[in-house]
Design goal:
By secondary structure, the protein is of the alpha+beta class. It is built from five helices and three strands; from the N terminus they run αβββαααα. The chain has helices spanning 4-11, 59-72, 77-81, 85-91, 100-120; strands at residues 24-30, 35-44, 47-56. The chain has a three-stranded antiparallel sheet with strand order 1-2-3. Helix 1 crosses helix 2 and helix 2 packs across helix 5 (100-120).
């Protein structure tokens, strides 16, 4: 059902946890499936330097959160906001159609974290 990349990220997510001093935090959830994702970012000079996540959800939700945090590091804020669910799906080697919403939640949490950062640093 899941690709080897998804299973590897699920079993050993390298971006799970909290940042010591995040300057942006976003949390989103999907009541239909019960997944909740929290993403924290550290942005310096318009570049996402660090990203961590905490996810309560299925294998795909955890893997997608981990992938979002990996892919966003080193991007400008604008590049991060332009990330798509397809980038996450491709990076994970695909997701079952019924689990595609998990990749969207990861991006939504990232966008919420960037929004929080922008509101704090106007």
């Amino acid at each position: 059902m899941y690709s080897e990349k998804v299973m590897k990220r699920f079993r050993n997510p390298k971006n799970a946890g909290e940042l010591k001093e995040p300057n942006g935090t976003g949390e989103v959830g999907n009541p239909a499936c019960g997944d909740v994702m929290k993403v924290e970012v550290k942005i310096e000079g318009n570049i996402v330097k660090e990203a961590k996540f905490k996810t309560f959800g299925c294998c795909a939700a955890i893997a997608a959160s981990d992938a979002v945090c990996d892919l966003v590091k080193g991007k400008t804020v604008e590049e991060a906001l332009a990330m798509t669910k397809q980038e996450i799906i491709d990076h994970l080697g695909g997701l079952p159609n019924i689990k595609v919403h998990c990749s969207v939640l990861g991006i939504d949490a990232l966008k919420a974290a960037i929004k929080d950062y922008r509101e704090k640093h106007k």
